[in-house]
Queue: 2 jobs
Job 1
Amino acid sequence: MTKPKVLLIYTGGTIGMIKAPETGALYPVDFQHIHEHVPELMRLNVALEAVNFHPTLDSSEMTPKDWIKIGTTIMENYNQFDGFVVLHGSDTMAYSASALSFMLEGLQKPVIFTGSQLPIGTIRTDGKENLITAIEIAAEQNHDGLPLVREVAVYFDYKLFRGNRCTKDSAENFEAFRSPNYDVLAEAGVQIKYNLDRLYRSNINKLIVKNNFNTKTALLKLYPGIDFSTYQSLFDKNHVEGLVIETFGSGNAPQDEKLRNLLMNFINQGGVVLNITQCNSGTVKQGLYATSSMFNQLGVISGYDLTTEAAVTKMMFVLGETTNFEDRKALLSQSIRGEMTIDRSSFFD
Ligand code: ASP
């Protein structure tokens, strides 16, 4: 039997760092020679190849151009490999994983993002376990020899999350990610236990890489006492075409005339507005309280249980996909890669 082939794509981040013994300074390893640093990889039943980004990036530097670079690398190698592991800084990993999930329509192979809190070249590193298990997951096949995972996912600290459902939760703990509104896809203990009914299956069979992100996107987080005049430029259609608002609780905002007028003008000019909650879990229910009825009246779109990372990248993606107002609204209103659960029930039925 031939070994499954996995491509490692090292973009940067802490995981790929080792310490120079003489100076103690951290520098990035060349993943082409990763076996020298993680000899355990030789014992895996996987044929591994690696490509490095030049230069490697701290993930705070990532932009849509870099997402496109990752997506293009996957596309160019799609037929030669059974799975992909993207090594990436953890800080913006949930943004990149969400963006890639939207880009890679019809994906039928695993794309597993991972990273670490401590460099792979340090004694207490979490990087080795994250790397080795991510590779095992990327190589995992079912009885028919088809990949088990066929979506963009994040593996971190013994858990596999849907990429567009997770969020970075801790700057310190090894358990750095959380998936607030969707079950984990797998948990790694003595064995890797997959939550089979949670795995995403696309009904499109051919990979289509869609790489237009429109950054005329803005994010506004509400807070009590907010003066909307300060944020007037976010509602200017010349600069912003899509606005994500992080509202209170189940999608609520102050009943503020200024906000109402800004929203009305923006939407009348063809701007799209997506409402997500700033709570750590749960969903938007527009119209449940008087403080969210305004959004329904004005045509603000409910983002239900989207994470901020998924909402912002979905907005950039949708604005890049089409310039048509109705098509933009339709795409934002539906779950296109399993990123959102549409919940129309009321708490008080
Ligand atoms: N600052 C780093 C980054 O996100 C942290 C990490 O690698 O986890 O690139």
Job 2
Amino acid sequence: MNAVVIKTTGKRYTVKTENGDVVHCLLKGKFRIAGIKSTNPIVVGDKVEVVQESELWMIVRLHDRKNHILRKSVNLSKQTHIIAANIDQAILMITLDSPITTTGFIDRFLVAANAYGVKVVLIFNKVDLLNDELKAAQNNLLNIYEGIGYTCFVTSVINDDLSEIKDLMKGKINMISGHSGVGKSTLVNYLQPNLHIDTKEVSNTHKQGQHTTTFSELHDLDFGASIIDTPGIRGFGLVELEVAELGNYFPEFFKLKSACKYHNCIHKNEPQCAIKSALAEGKVAESRYKNYLNMLEEEQEHFRTNNY
Ligand code: GDP
Ligand code: ZN
């Protein structure tokens, strides 16, 4: 029978079967996924096949993943820890006031999501707090991100009817992300009043032992959506990208790059660069280009210090 993994704790797996039953399972046999040296073979969001053998339920097969997100292990084994799989979309909540979400944060998030193959929808929340200046700034961001192809919503979750957001989430596994204080738990409480998910921010600096106590969990909401709760990564953790591929994760750069003179152009100091031309013509946003250069710089620094 097919099932979805909704919780894992050590060797025990809680799954929801296609009949809607929630059962606890063990793994039968070894599950190795080519190319991934992971500490955990089966994760929340995985689609699996389960069988009942006498009293015990067993996971006997892992179906192909659409995507997965991971975090590097704290120890030196170079193993990775997969946090969740088969995420249909990440909903990034953004506020321009209380707290301020910067484009640096947004663009980093979008790059990581793109690298993981996770679609992102942007929700600009707390519009009720915006003065004219911030409204103009928000409109500017809407132009930029809708122009690139991202779906954007503008709302005030404490005041507005959220049926559009419900429609957006229906039938999907959603990950709700964003800075602490942007309104994630307010949204979730509205969608499902008795559900308590942990929306606390966990710092990026890994604390020893943290991984053993936090587990992802999948929650079904009554209106037919699922939310994946992934402690420790309201963002996506760190994705390590090659310097040369970073630009591929900026969709508007990627579209133009075949027009750059050099096929390995990193859009920095090279002559006849299509991205720099588009920037000069105002077709690429300055904030996007600036954030790209900052990320490029960090990647280069990272490679230098790690002696690759
Ligand atoms: P989280 O850390 O992302 O889960 O943020 P919370 O949901 O805890 O929200 C932080 C604060 O912002 C709470 O006091 C909410 O009541 C408030 N808040 C959430 N949405 C809105 C909104 O649309 N407008 C205003 N003014 N406040 C909001
Ligand atoms: Zn270029």
